[in-house]
Amino acid sequence: MDLFPNTTAVVSFILFIITYAIVSILIIRPALRIVARRERDVYGVGDAAKAIEDQAGDKKSDYQEKLKALRSEGTSLRSGTRASALSEEKDLVTAAQVSIKHKSDAMAEELTHEVERVKDQLYIEHAHLARDVARRILGRQV
Fold it and tell me: How far apart are CA 100 and CA 95, in angstroms?
């Protein structure tokens, strides 16, 4: 057995190391860089998409909360407006009823006075009419 290895084995080993270094520098390192960049881009985009999705979810929940608050405010405003409108309607109807009552009372009183005046006038004239009718029928002054 030789203490030194065969020269062919040594030369083959040196050529293997040189070939490995050249292939590593020219092919393996650039390929690993491309794969690493691609993974970073893919996962980075995924992380960005996840962040955007989270922001969209937060904005949607904020929107829904604001919408709920505005709906509640709208409901309370509508209720308040409806209550004030009903109150105003009641006041207007009451005022109209009072006004109509006063007008109808005044007209009834005026009508009563007019009837009384006409009765009085007829009472005064009925004697003249009766005398005139009697004179025409009897042919003489009564």
Answer: 9
